[in-house]
Specification:
The complex is a heterodimer.
Chain A (H helix, E strand, L loop, with lengths): L1 H5 L2 H9 L5 E5 L5 H10 L2 E6 L2 H9 L3 E4 L14 E7 L8 H11 E9 L4 H8 L24 H10 L2 E10 L2 E2 L4 H4 L2 E8 L2
Parallel strand pairs in A: 1-2, 1-4, 2-3, 4-5
Antiparallel strand pairs in A: 5-8, 6-7, 6-8
Chain B lengths: L11 E5 L3 E2 L5 E2 L2 E8 L9 E5 L26 E2 L4 E2 L4 E5 L14 E2 L4 E2 L9 H14 L7 E5 L1 H12 L6 E5 L7 H15 L17 H15 L2 H7 L18 H16 L2 H13 L10 H5 L5 E7 L7 H13 L4 E6 L13 H16 L3
Parallel strand pairs in B: 5-8, 5-11, 6-7, 11-12, 12-13, 13-14
Antiparallel strand pairs in B: 1-4, 2-3, 4-8, 9-10
Helix pairs in contact in B: 1-2, 3-4, 3-7, 4-6
Classes of the chains: A alpha/beta, B alpha/beta.
């Protein structure tokens, strides 16, 4: 199936984390690639949320359930505990209300899955050392046209979760789609963090 | 006529002789419904779409009745061959609701028992009564289940009601620019409109037909007020601004601003072609609609009856049926664990946006209905 081949590397890793038959909320679902793959291969019951009407059209074309809404205002449409997994992929770095969305994720779902560009990646550090704002594979924008406003490193994100009474269940750091086990905060450009309420 | 028009169409009158007991308790022994259809019903009768009209709508949804008609049906941009509601794929039904004034039995029809127009004696009809008569029409056409029931505004309320009352007869409900019930403000607008009509000296308690007059001034005011609420401040500003007809102030009370001219024109046009009693009935149907009422006030509980899949659409500048009201429907459907997609279309056309040709709106409708069509073998 085409969707399996074209799934973005970070989405492949997210998909691998999600068990079959679960209820999944995909925040900032874009064109619905992840949900379409999950429905086709893992029989999940999924709903997407996106603010862009073009994403809504694309998801509806794929036969997905999708709600047009702005994540910055929270997830009022959704009841507490209505999902098993809540996904937020490569979106959080462009959001204003990061604490709110993380809290909302664990209000409506049991487990959160977030991916974000790791600002601690060595290429980023190197460019700053050279006196420039970093531009790299996972941060492809120039400082003057970037939608990204909240960068963090793998360590920063884990600290915020702790502050919010949440815990890291699993952390997978990637570079060019491959998992980085050694010095991940330095050698990984993309982080996937699975988290849940602290015990 | 353009190639993607349904072309020249002819309405048909369906007569129903089984008495119907309405929500109010009143009984109509017989009634007629004016109906127009487009496309063809497939062999297993699974490709039917019902279009439910809004306050001032009717059965003439698409195409023209004659080549010389100035305007096509009220939703011609949405319904036709190759259009979002594609008549190459679907058998589309439009009807004039009971109580209407476009050929279906309504207050201006002759009451067979008296030989005179019903007038004030025509019973109040509710959305659920319309759904009942529409179901009887479906029975007559041999349609057990609709591929989709679609409506905007008051029409969206009918689609919602269909999904609750006849869950097994609706595969998809498309609820556009609608609300699960009217707010106090919305009822207030309706009442001002009704008061304009009822206090017109030519209303005669609703029996103006015998006096061979029409409460035109009242109906005109009602329509002018309605029109203001169907447009947005921005949309009105862009279209009319403070433009003057003559370019300068005249220091009087005649028509000076273009917006005044527009509203009076719309009011005049409407008052010559719409029945005042029907206007009263339609606004009451809007006011009374509240499906949650029979489920302990819980809309989610009401929507748990439904088996249909839903598409809900709202428009950002619509303040008469604001996006927040559509979000209530979406939330209830999510709470009820029903299948729903929701689009909030950026538009400055206010409530009227649901009748406009806006690319993202059309794209969402087309995408959704393409998938509905795929389910039909």
């Amino acid at each position: 199936m085409a969707t399996a081949l074209t799934l973005r590397p970070d989405l492949q890793h997210i998909a691998a984390q999600i068990p079959a038959g679960t209820r999944v909320l995909d925040l900032g679902c874009a064109e619905g690639d992840l949900l379409a793959w999950l429905q086709a291969h893992k029989n999940v019951r999924g709903i997407g949320v996106d603010v862009d009407v073009n994403s809504i059209v694309a998801c509806v074309e794929k036969g997905l359930n999708v709600i047009q809404a702005d994540l910055e205002t929270g997830l009022q449409s959704f009841e507490d505990g209505s999902f098993d997994y809540v996904v937020l992929s490569l979106t959080i770095q462009a959001m204003h209300n990061i604490e709110l969305i993380l809290q909302e994720m664990l209000r409506v779902g049991k487990v959160g899955l977030v991916t974000f560009p790791n600002f601690g990646f060595w290429e980023n550090r190197w460019q700053i050392l050279l006196g420039r704002m970093p531009v790299s594979e996972t941060i492809p924008y120039e400082w003057y046209n970037t939608p990204n406003i909240h960068f963090c490193t793998v360590h920063d994100f884990a600290r915020l979760l702790g502050k919010l009474g949440m815990q890291v269940e699993q952390q997978i750091v990637l570079h060019q789609g491959e998992r980085v086990e050694f010095w991940p905060n330095l050698l990984g450009s993309l982080a996937l963090v699975q988290f849940s309420p602290a015990q | 006529m353009s190639t993607n028009s349904v072309g020249i169409v002819t309405p048909h009158k369906f007569e129903f002789t089984d008495p119907i007991t309405l929500s109010s308790g009143a009984v109509l022994p017989r009634y007629e419904l004016m109906v127009e259809t487009y496309g063809s019903l497939n062999a297993d009768k699974s490709n039917a779409i019902l279009i439910c009209h809004a306050l001032s709508g009717h059965h003439h949804v698409a195409g023209k009745h004659a080549e010389t008609d100035k305007a096509a049906g009220w939703w011609d941009n949405m319904v036709g061959p190759g259009k979002p509601i594609d008549t190459n794929k679907f058998f589309v039904i439009g009807l004039n609701n009971l109580g209407g004034c476009h050929g279906s039995t309504g207050p201006s029809s002759i009451n067979p028992e008296t030989g005179a127009p019903y007038g004030s004696s025509f019973p109040v009809v509710l959305v659920r009564d319309w759904v009942e008569t529409q179901a009887r029409l479906a029975d007559r056409l041999g349609i057990q289940q609709f591929a989709a029931v679609i409506g905007g505004s008051l029409g969206g309320m009918q689609a919602l009601r269909w999904s609750i009352t006849y869950p097994e007869r609706v595969r998809h409900a498309l609820v556009i620019a609608s609300a699960p019930k009217l707010t106090a403000q919305n009822i207030a607008f309706n009442d001002v409109a009704r008061q304009a009509i009822i206090t017109d000296p030519e209303f005669h308690g609703g029996d103006y037909y015998q006096h061979e007059v029409v409460p035109r001034r009242g109906l005109r005011l009602a329509r002018m007020l309605g029109h203001i609420t169907y447009l947005s401040d921005d949309g009105m500003g862009e279209k009319f601004g403070r433009m003057l007809r003559s370019g300068e102030y005249k220091y009087g009370f005649e028509v000076e601003f273009e917006i005044e001219s527009y509203l009076r024109y719309q009011g005049d046009k409407f008052s010559t072609r719409f029945d005042a009693n029907t206007y009263l009935l339609m606004t009451k149907a809007l006011d009374y609609f509240d499906p949650a009422r029979h489920y302990g006030g819980s809309l989610a509980q009401a929507m748990r009856q439904a088996q249909a899949k839903f598409l809900v659409v709202s428009f950002t500048s619509d303040w008469r049926f604001a996006p927040a009201r559509s979000r209530e429907i979406v939330k209830a459907l999510l709470d009820a664990d029903r299948s729903v997609s929701y689009a909030e279309i950026e538009s400055q056309h206010g409530h009227d946006a649901f009748l406009m040709e806006d690319a993202p709106y059309m794209a969402v409708m087309r995408a959704y209905l393409n998938n509905v069509a795929k389910e039909i073998v």
